[in-house]
């Protein structure tokens, strides 16, 4: 019986960019913990990064809007707000690629 071997190369996709952007946002929220609503922003960020949401990308946009609103209402640091906008741009690109039938 052959053993499973780890692949020696990986193809970078737009979904890996999206995943990376969520991870960077999560770390930034933790680094700036203490602003109003930060715990809720963190909770919903984790939800947006979950396998269930990634499998149904249409759920991600409403979560992103909720996260943006909580961050704005909580007067989150500029770095957090900018990362949210970066995610919005990548998510738009993902949605465009899906409409075009491009593989993710």
Cα-to-Cα separation, first versus last residue: 32 Å
Which structural class do you get from the secondary structure elements? Answer: mainly alpha
* Main sheet overview: none
* Percent range of helical residues: 55-70%
| Strand percent estimate | under 5%
Spatial extent as radius of gyration: 16 Å
Question: Uncertain runs with pLDDT below 50, 5 residues or more?
Answer: none
What's the order of the H and E elements?
A: HHHHH
Question: Which of globular, elongated, flat, extended, rod-shaped describes the shape?
Answer: globular
Average pLDDT number: 92
DSSP helical segment count = 5
Number of E strands:
0
At a glance:
By secondary structure, the chain is mainly α. The chain has helices spanning 14-31, 38-49, 51-55, 60-73, 78-99.
Observed structural traits:
single chain; 104 residues; mainly alpha; Flagellar protein FliT
What can you see in these coordinates?
This protein is mostly helical. The protein is 68% helix and 0% strand. This is Flagellar protein FliT. It comes from Candidatus Competibacter phosphatis.
């Amino acid at each position: 019986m052959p053993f499973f071997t780890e692949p020696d190369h990986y193809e970078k996709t737009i979904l890996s960019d999206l995943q990376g952007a969520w991870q960077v946002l999560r770390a930034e929220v933790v680094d700036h913990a203490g602003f109003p609503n930060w715990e809720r922003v963190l909770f919903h960020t984790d939800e947006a990064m979950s396998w269930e949401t990634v499998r149904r990308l249409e759920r991600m946009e409403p979560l992103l809007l909720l996260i943006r609103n909580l961050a704005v209402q909580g007067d989150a640091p500029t770095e957090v707000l900018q990362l949210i906008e970066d995610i919005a741009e990548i998510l738009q690109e993902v949605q465009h690629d899906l409409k075009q039938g491009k593989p993710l």
